[in-house]
Design brief:
single chain; about 280 residues; mainly alpha; two-stranded antiparallel sheet; about 55% helix; about 5% strand
């Protein structure tokens, strides 16, 4: 089983613990609940399925049942808090506490790298830009980016990308990518994806004023659909994104970094059958 530091979702960790125990014994949800001191044999399954939250008294019981001690138990407690807060602002506060605690204990939270990569648009931008400018100083790279980015931002980002293996240093101020694409794990904290989309959406909005019309493509379509049609459109959008990624992958003489935002979102609430004019 993966160490708890690989997780940013306490429900996933609990489920993986259950599955791991089940492999080597007749372990059941009833057995798990009994081990943790709960009367309901299905309570922990409901927690893992996201149908209820782990209660405050239950945190210590479950942590003990899973054999967590010291920093790992504290880490689990923080993960539960992260899973229960509602707003992105609250999640960021708890996540910052988790990362600070890990740093103080000289431990590395694996999935936190994905959060930083998504949280700051400068990370994916510099990852694409650096290989195009061998020998360039951070200040020279910062001058090429169409947003408020300093030389210090670029320098820190380059260090982060090299440390996490997303870039490889090939010489003085020269870098190459270790892989063509970066894919966000489906198990990554949803906050990471929302942060990336929010920041890239903001940059897309700014491009309407600071980018020449012949260097950008912005269009939209307002339409009425039902659930089945919506799912069909989503599949088409996903296929389009894959095709665009393949086309970009064939480019041999890259000289600029672009971002493609694909957005499909509701402009109204659903209208019930009884509310329609027949």
């Amino acid at each position: 089983m993966k160490p708890i530091l690989n997780y940013l979702d306490y429900r996933c960790y609990m489920r993986d613990f259950y599955e791991e125990r089940k492999k080597s014994s007749a372990f059941s949800w009833r057995e798990f609940a009994k081990l943790a001191g709960f009367v309901s044999p299905t309570y922990l399954k409901l927690v893992c399925d996201g149908k209820t939250n782990l209660s405050k008294p239950g945190i210590q019981k479950v942590a003990k049942a899973m054999g967590l001690e010291g920093f790992e138990r504290t880490f689990f407690e923080n993960l539960v808090q992260l899973g229960h807060v509602k707003s992105d602002a609250e999640k960021k506060t708890v996540l910052a506490k988790i990362l600070q605690s890990a740093k103080e204990n000289k431990m590395h939270v694996l999935n936190a790298d994905g959060f930083r990569f998504c949280e700051h648009p400068v990370c994916p931008i510099v990852r694409e830009l650096a290989p195009l400018m061998p020998g360039a100083l951070p200040s020279e790279m910062a001058a090429k980016i169409n947003s408020e980015v300093t030389a210090l931002d670029v320098r820190d980002t380059l260090q982060f990308l090299v440390k996490t293996g997303l870039l490889k240093k090939t010489g003085e101020n020269s870098y190459e990518q270790t892989s063509k694409m970066v894919k966000i794990s489906k198990d990554a904290l949803p906050l990471t994806v929302r942060s990336m989309n929010r920041e890239m959406g903001r940059l897309g909005f700014l491009s309407l004023d600071n980018t020449e019309v012949d260097e950008r493509s912005v269009s939209g379509l307002t339409m009425g659909v039902d659930e089945i049609t919506y799912r069909r459109i989503v599949r088409e959008v996903d296929e389009c994104r894959r095709k665009v990624a393949a086309i970009a992958g064939e480019c041999k003489k890259i000289n600029q970094v672009y971002r493609l935002n694909l957005q499909l979102f509701p402009l109204t609430k659903k209208v019930d059958e009884t509310q329609r004019n027949v």
